[in-house]
Every structure is written in C-alpha cells, then in structure tokens.
Write a structure and sequence with these properties.
By secondary structure, chain A is an alpha/beta fold. Chain A contains eight helices and ten strands. Chain A has a domain of 166 residues: P-loop containing nucleotide triphosphate hydrolases (Rossmann fold, 3-Layer(aba) Sandwich). Chain C has one domain: Orthogonal Bundle (MetI-like fold). Classes of the chains: A alpha/beta (268), B mainly alpha (314), C mainly alpha (258).
Chain lengths: 268, 314, 258
C-alpha cells in the first residue's frame, strides 16, 4: 500500500495517525464532525497531498499533525513522538494559504523569525537567511518589506521561513491557493526542486487535482461530513520535468483522482 | 435539505442567545464597575480619615490623590440623599428633578448639534469622495479645525448667533448657538470616517456597478453608503459623546442658562455649601453621556442586525 | 523627495491660502468693523502686539498639555498591556472603557478643582490625563488583541511563548492603532486643557487669556490666542505623526493627516 515510485531511503514513518476523530463545538447546536476514524501513515521523505472538497477536514488533519489543534479521539505521532512534543522540538515547518508574513519585519527578518525564537545568534541567523533567500531566488529582496512584494514572492518568503531551521517535515496548507495559475505552476516547480534537494517529508493540502498529481508521490482523497479518507492513490510519475504536465501518465493519474472525488460526490 | 435548514436555524438561535448573553454580561460588568468605584471611593475616604490626612504630610495625598474630608469627598450616601432633597428653599422640587430637566435641555441642544453635524459631515465626505484633489486639500484643515477650541469662544458664538440669525422665521434662542458648537465638534468624526467608509466599498462591487451603467448617485446610495455604515456608526458613537461635551461646555462658557453645564457651574460656585450637589450634577452629565452613547449603540444593533445574521454562517 | 512632498501638499496650500484670502476680502466687504470675526490680518496684528503675554500663556498651557499627555499615554498603554493578557479584556473591559469614554470628562473639572485647589494646575492635568487615557487604552487594546489567526498559528507552530507572541506580534500589531490614538489624543489634550483652564488653575494660561479677553469684548485678542492654541495642537499632531513614521517604517508613506 505504501510503496511508491520514489521509495524513501529510510522506511521510518514521519507521521502516524491512528483512528483519529475531531469534533468542533462538542455538545453545542453548531457541533461539526470534522474528521472521523482517520488512519494515515506518512513515510519519511515522501510528498503527500491531501485533497478534497471544502469542509472535508483536510486542513484540520494538517493542523492535527502540527499539534495546532488536538484530536477528540485517537492519536497523532510525529517523528516517533507525540505531535505536541514534536511541535515543542520544532520538528516541522509550516506554510499557510495567506503568507502570514509579519508586515513590520523585512523579508530577511521574517525568515529569521523561527531562528530568533530558537535562540540563534545574529550572525548565524543572517547567514542562514541569506542561504534561504538564495534557495527561493529572492536574494536581492532581503531588505524589502512584505507589502513591496508580489503574492508569489510573499509565498516564497513564507516557504523560506518554514525551511529556515531545516525541519525534516514541512506542512503546507493550500500555500498557492491565492496565486494565479502561471505563478502557481512556477511555484510548484520550485517546491519540487527544493524537495528533491532536501528530501523533506512534505504534507500538502490543496483543492487542485493537477497540483496534487504534479507534486506528490501519493494523493490522499478525502470526503466531507464527516471527514474521511475516501481513497489513497499513488502517483507513479517518476522525476517531474517540463514535459510531465503533458504526459499520458499525468492525465491518467488526474483521471484517477477525479474519479475518486466524483465517486465520493455521488454517494452523498 | 430540511435538516440543513434546521441546523442553520439552531445555529442562528444559538448565536442570538450568545449575543444577548454578551449584552447582559456587559451590563453586569458595568454595574460591577460602578459598585467597585463606589467601594474604592468609600474605602479610600475611610483610609484617609483613619490616617488623619489633613494633619499629616503625605506626599501623594493632596497632590495626586484628593484629601478625604467631607468637603472634598462627600460620602456617597450624602450624594444619594441629596438627590431627593429640594435644592431651593422656596420649592419642594427635588434635586433629581432639576438634574433631569437640565439633562433634557442639554440633550435637545446636543441632538440638534448631532443632527446638523451629521449632515455636514456626510456632505463633506461626499464632496471629498467626488474629488481626490479636494480630499487632499481639505482633510488637513478638517484635522486642524478640531484643534481650534471653539468651545472656548462660545460667548462670541452666542452673540454672533443672536445678531446674525434675525432672518430666520423663528426667534433665535441662545441654546441654538450652543447647538452650533455641538455641530462643530460633531461633524469631524462623521466626515473623517465617512470618507474612509465610502471608499471602503469593494473595488469588484464598484466595477459591477459600473458594468450596470449605474449613475454616481445610484452607486453612492446602493453600494458606497451601505458599505460605509460600520465606519459611520463608529463615528456616530463618538459624535454623540462629543455633542454632549460641546453642549455642556458651550453652555458654561457661553453663559446659556437651563442646561446641565449651567447647573454644574452654579453648584461649583456654591461648592462649599453643598459639595454633594456638584457631585450629583456631574453624575447627571455622566449618565447623559452614557445614555446617548447607548442610544446610538442600540440603533446600530437594529440597523446592522440583518447583516450580522447573514455573516453568522460557519 | 521634497518635490513629491510639495506636490502632495499643493491642494492643501491652494485651499488654505484661498480660504484666508476669501475670509479677509469678504469681511472687508460685509463686516468692515470686524466685530465678532476679525480679519486674518487683524488677528495677526493682535498676535504680534500681545506676543509676550500669549507666549507665556502658551508655555504654561503647553506644560499642562505635554505632562498630561505623557502621563495619560503611559497609563493607557500600561493598563492595556495588563488587561490584554486576559481574554476578558476583549469581551468586557474594552466595551466598558468605550462606554466610560462617553462621559463628558470635562464636566469633572469643578470636582478636580475642589480636590487639588482652584489655582493648582494639577486639576487641569488630571482632565488632560483622563481625556488622553481612553482613546489610547481603547486603541492599544484593540491592536494587542486583534491579531491575524495565521500569525498566531505560525507562532504556535514554533512553540513560541506567550511573551514572545506579545513582543513579536501583539506589540507591533498595536503600533499603527496606538499612533492613531496618539494623534487624536494630542488635539484632545489641547482642547481639554484650554476648557479645563476656564474652570480654574493658573491665571496665566491660554484658556484664561481667551476667556478674559472674550468677556471684555476684545475678540481679536481672543482669536490670536485661539490661533496659538491651534498651532500647539497642530504641532503636537505633526510630532506624533513624526514618531509614527520612525516607529512604523514598514507602513506606506502615511499622509500627514493619517
């Protein structure tokens, strides 16, 4: 089940989710069953996308991995420890749909934020920030304020910030959702480049089928009310390049994911 | 589908209940604050009397904190009983009635000031909306206008009012001049927030109106004005407060009798014979300020209610 | 840079100069004796003639305004920092402060005079402190509590402490609102001080100068002092705006008016 075309070097699990349920506003009239009986194991070094219609709990699932919210039932283990401990150990980096940049900090200062919280000294922070700026190709924008950057550039800063302390796990919540299609494809290529260079585990929430297929080794399809895993599809596309988006395999995988989503839609 | 509707209704009910609970909690906190204030006042007074502060030289008492004798700080019960006593020997009307009448008089001045200030403020906002150039030219002076202490030249306004308003079909009363002062303080927040609010209309919605070939007037009435309501109500709350301030201070410095300002001035000048009366009349002003603020808040609740309901969906 | 600033100020200059000329000319035509509303040139004459008296009154009033402003701002910020640590701040204490702000604080002047003595400037300072406190407290609390959810989540994902969240998000987030309040408070402080001076305090102040000259019909002198008061208010406003620029460099070039 968990065999993919780019098998990770280590077989260790980055994330293990065991029969997790999540209910918001428990016992109130506006009670919502966001997730129900979720089992999911993510191997180290894989790129996994969570996809589904709005309200299927994919963002909630991501937040459970980051211990930004806690399960009503079940357990979440990250890097072999509780999600809370992993958060305290700064085991993961996170990027959101809105860049969440601090408008009062320059680009460099934004990237340095987690390092500062971890008590790095100034020179080290500076050095790492410059390295990250190079990685996301924004070297000449270090002293700019976020409002002077385009949406795509802001999102790249947010990714640089998430990667700055080199966490092995990267949680991304529709990070390109607010970008135009061209910028989006460009950003996808960049994220893949970063992933190939660093071999992080990436969990990527999206509502775009081509995006999920293009990026991931594995696409987890979710269904709403209550949020459940409807299908778990591996994407055997090998190393992505410029032609991947036009290959037959790409379209086949898109069709497979679409069918899974449609099947879910019709049984409601 | 029916179950969906039921859930939505249940949620709406829940939200309404929450809103009411919030309102009740605020009133309770407010009353608790009043009680705490009264306790603090009485407690401090008891403390000061126990250390005999009139004789001892404490560095703070008398400089930062008041002395605690009955003349500077009359006991709260004295103030309350004073409300039921007639302040004048030749009439049995209690002080509370005097304060209520004066409050109504001041309220009328402030209400007229509020109304005309609102109109003036809205007119200025609409003019500034028409032209970026006028907005940039005018707005520094709007700010500067509020640094002019018109309240301090109220006597001039009162004389000016009685001299130059002869052409009106009714007799110009001194209180109307006070309303002008209230107007002067009121128009400013309305104009400033009005322009901000009118400009806050969603650019996409503006384009939509353009695509309908809507006239400026239609765009203003159907889109920009509704969009500005949250800003305007914030301004109205401030305006209600400053209209009362303007009325009270205008009465005092313009020498206009009949209102709270004059009452406060009278009791301040006869302070040594009845400190409780000054305290009571100042409290009347505080109550009036909070009441007009409350009136605007309640109006806002009813005007904006539908909108909040629309956005309450999860 | 200077050129751009001048271009920005151009409409204001045109309207300002135009307004003054219109004022001067229309009064020359319809109100030649300048009884109640003097012409700008007359006010200017009175200003230069009584410069010494107005200057010393301005210094005294300025002292009350600036000290009251500083104490009021410190109280407002400290109180807001304390209160915003608790969830109750947003839900109950801020609405309470907003309601209390509806009290006409100037009406307290006679009581403060009774507390601190009729001729003591403390009663005037107390009025200014209270007038300044409320907008600063309300706006700063709003700024400290209304932080974007993503930013908080991000800080949570870094396991940041409460104090780190306050220092790195809440305080910078409150800066723009704080400065808006400071600008409002600086004009309020001037008006408040002058009206409070009407009730009592030192005799050599702008409030007393205006009242005494107006009472004896010397309106031009009163107007000259009004101009001095306005100048003080505008200066404080511009100084606050200057602080704002230095303290919030990330914001776009803010208009002088804000």
């Amino acid at each position: 089940m968990n065999d993919h075309d780019t098998p990770p070097s280590k077989a260790a699990a980055a994330v293990e989710i065991d029969s997790v349920s999540k209910v918001f506003n428990l016992g109130k009239p506006n009670e919502v069953h966001a997730l129900d009986g979720i089992d999911l194991t993510i191997d180290d070094g894989t790129f996994v996308s969570l996809i589904g219609p709005s309200g299927c709990g994919k963002s909630t699932l991501l937040r459970l991995m980051g211990a930004l919210t806690h399960p009503t039932e079940g357990s979440v283990v990250v890097n072999g420890k509780s999600a809370d401990q992993a958060r305290l150990d700064r085991d993961y980096g996170m990027a959101f749909q809105t860049s969440g940049l601090f408008e009062w900090r320059t680009v460099t200062q934004n990237i340095e934020l987690p390092l500062q919280l971890m008590g790095w000294d100034k020179a080290q922070r500076k050095e790492r920030a410059l390295e990250m700026l190079d990685l996301v190709k924004l070297a000449e924008f270090g002293d700019h304020y976020p409002r002077e950057l385009s949406g795509g550039m802001q999102q790249r800063v947010a990714i640089a910030r998430a990667l700055s302390f080199r966490p092995q796990l990267l949680l991304m919540d529709e990070p390109f959702g607010a970008l135009d299609e061209m910028t989006r494809e460009h950003m996808q290529t960049e994220v893949l480049e970063i992933w190939e260079k660093t071999r992080k585990t990436i969990v990527f929430v999206t509502h775009s089928i081509p995006e999920a297929v293009f990026l991931s080794n594995r696409v987890v399809v979710m269904s709403p009310r209550p949020g459940r895993i409807a299908a778990d599809i591996s994407v055997p596309l090998g190393r992505r390049n410029f032609d991947t988006r036009e290959s037959q395999g790409f379209f086949d995988s898109i069709t497979e994911v679409r069918e899974a989503l449609r099947f879910e839609g019709s049984t409601r | 589908m029916a179950t969906r509707d039921e859930t939505a209704r249940a949620i709406a009910r829940h939200e309404r209940k929450e809103a009411v609970r919030r309102g009740v909690r605020r009133v309770v906190v407010f009353l608790a604050f009043l009680v705490a204030l009264a306790l603090l006042y009485t407690g401090y007074k008891a403390f000061g009397e126990s250390i005999n502060d009139a004789q001892t030289e404490w560095p703070v008492i008398g400089r930062v904190l008041p002395r605690t004798n009955d003349l500077t700080m009359p006991p709260i019960m004295d103030i309350v009983t004073e409300l039921g006593q007639p302040p004048q020997r030749n009439s049995s009307k209690p002080l509370a009635a005097f304060i209520a009448e004066a409050s109504l008089f001041t309220f009328r001045e402030a209400a007229f000031g509020f109304f005309f200030g609102m109109m003036l403020g809205l007119a200025l906002a609409i003019i500034m909306l028409r032209s970026r150039w006028i907005e940039r030219g005018l707005s520094p002076y709007l700010v500067a206008s509020q640094t002019i202490p018109l309240v301090a030249i109220a006597p001039i306004v009162v004389i000016w009012g009685s001299k130059s308003m002869g052409w009106l079909p009714f007799d110009w009363q001194p209180w109307m001049s006070v309303s002008i002062i209230a107007t002067y303080l009121t128009f400013f927040p309305v104009a400033m927030n009005g322009i901000k609010g009118l400009q806050s209309a969603d650019p996409a919605a503006m384009e939509l109106m353009r695509s309908y070939a809507a006239s400026r007037r239609q765009t203003l009435l159907k889109l920009q004005f509704p969009a500005s309501l949250p800003y305007l109500f914030a301004a109205f709350k401030l305006a209600a407060t400053v209209s009362i301030v303007g009325a009270i201070v205008g009465e005092i410095s313009g020498g206009v009798p009949g209102g709270l300002g004059r009452l406060i001035l009278d009791y301040a000048s006869r302070y040594t014979t009845g400190p409780s009366r000054l305290y009571a009349s100042v409290m009347g002003a505080a109550v009036l300020g909070i009441v007009v603020f409350g009136m605007v808040t309640v109006t806002e609740y009813f005007v904006m209610y539908k909108r909040q309901e629309g956005s309450a969906a999860p | 840079m200077i050129k751009r600033a001048l271009a920005g100020a151009f409409p204001a200059l045109v309207i300002g100069v135009g307004g003054l000329v219109l004022w001067e000319l229309s009064l020359l035509v319809i109100n030649p004796d300048g009884f109640l509303l003097p012409r700008p040139t007359e006010i200017f004459e009175a200003f230069t003639e009584h410069f010494d008296a107005i200057w010393s009154a301005t210094i005294n009033t300025g002292y009350i305004v600036v000290t009251g402003l500083i104490v009021g701002v410190i109280l407002g910020v400290v109180w807001s920092l304390l209160v915003s640590r608790f969830r109750i701040a947003d839900e109950t204490l801020t609405p309470l402060a907003i309601a209390l702000n509806a009290i006409p604080i100037i009406a307290l002047a006679p009581i403060f005079n009774a507390w601190y003595g009729l001729l003591s400037p403390t009663s005037n300072q107390a009025i200014v402190v209270l007038l300044v406190f409320f907008p600063v407290f309300i706006n700063t609390t709003k700024g400290l509590t209304s932080v974007g959810a993503t930013k908080i989540e991000l800080m949570d994902s870094y396991a940041a402490s409460k104090w780190e969240i306050t220092r790195m998000i809440r305080i910078p987030n409150a800066m723009p609102l704080f400065f808006t309040a400071l600008k409002i408070a600086s004009s309020l402080a001037v008006i408040g001080a002058i009206v409070a001076e009407y009730f009592g305090g030192s005799q050599d102040t702008l409030g007393q100068f205006i009242v005494q000259n107006a009472a004896s019909g010397r309106y031009t002198n009163a107007w000259a002092a009004v101009v001095a008061a306005s100048a003080m208010g505008i200066t404080l406003y511009l100084v606050s705006g200057g602080f704002e620029r230095v303290a919030t460099p990330w914001r776009p070039d803010v208009d002088v008016v804000g």
